[in-house]
Amino acid sequence: MTSTSVPGATNGAGAQPCDAQSWPIGAAMLQFPGTRADGSTLTEADPAAWRPALREVALAGFSHVDLTDSWVRPGDLSAERLGQLTGVADDLGLAFSAISVTRKSVIDPDSSVAARNLEYALRTVDAAAELGVGTVCLGLHQPLTPAQKEAVWFWLAKGGEDPEDAAVRDLAVERFHRIGEHAAQAGVEISLEMYEGTYLGTSQGAVDLVRDIALPNVGLCPDIGNIVRLHRPVEDWRTMLERMLPYTNYWQVKNYVRDYDPAAGAYFSAPAPMENGFIDYRTAIGMALDVGFRGPLCVEHYGGDGLSVAATNRDYIRRILHAKLKS
Known about the structure:
Blueprint: E1 25-28, H1 51-59, E2 64-68, H2 79-91, E3 95-100, H3 111-131, E4 135-138, H4 146-150, H5 166-186, E5 189-193, H6 203-213, E6 218-221, H7 225-228, H8 237-244, E7 251-253, E8 255-261, E9 266-272, H9 281-290, E10 297-299, H10 306-324
Parallel strand pairs: 1-2, 1-10, 2-3, 3-4, 4-5, 5-6, 7-10
Antiparallel strand pairs: 8-9
Helix pairs in contact: 3-5, 5-6, 6-8, 9-10
């Protein structure tokens, strides 16, 4: 718990204090496809097919992997196959820091899809417990639209949005509460990812949602990179973090260059290494440490050689942690 004693506030409960070198910083698996040339998925594949991507992560200097389910879906693996996944990782000297569930909203506009996503989230919590992973990250963002898939960067096209409907929001609270209770029984924390167009799309909206869920093991993933990349006015990144960090138990970090021409009314953004982008992560990480954050980190990057940029970001974070930590 953070020093803010309110329902739902958490900063990685149960996490052990880390130093700059041991702090779990997981490589996101976003840049590795989850579908093979024959159309089958890696989730269905022989464990030998999991090794090449994990080997690349290990050779990039990572000790932790963030299991992004666009690569392999832990929630759809049997206990035996989860053991095989652990075996491949162990052989490469890797551990799993978190599981990230992507674009599987529990309030999807299609009620049957939403129900399946809820059951999948519950299975993913069980998989996390089986793997010994302490954090599962969930969100309300929906699958990419055709326009988003065709755009140079998917965030430049409009995606699905949560409705301004109190009943639907209440359903989100109810379902996340159910998942959170299930996770608490398994010793797992749930982190809810900030994402535009959802009930987690603003800092106040995200805080209000987690307060309404009101479980100590349900917190926030303040992925402010999802917001600063948008080609429109956005909240100041410092304000977003000031509100959300007291509730943060896991953090996906990435950065973008951002510019605005008031004469033309035009915005520009593009992915950038963390130390070169719009968000000052030296300040941001210091803010997080000051409120007691001790959860796992996940380094993400879109475009180009995402893994190499993620490795650069990992080393940058460790330098900041070395400078900021008291011990």
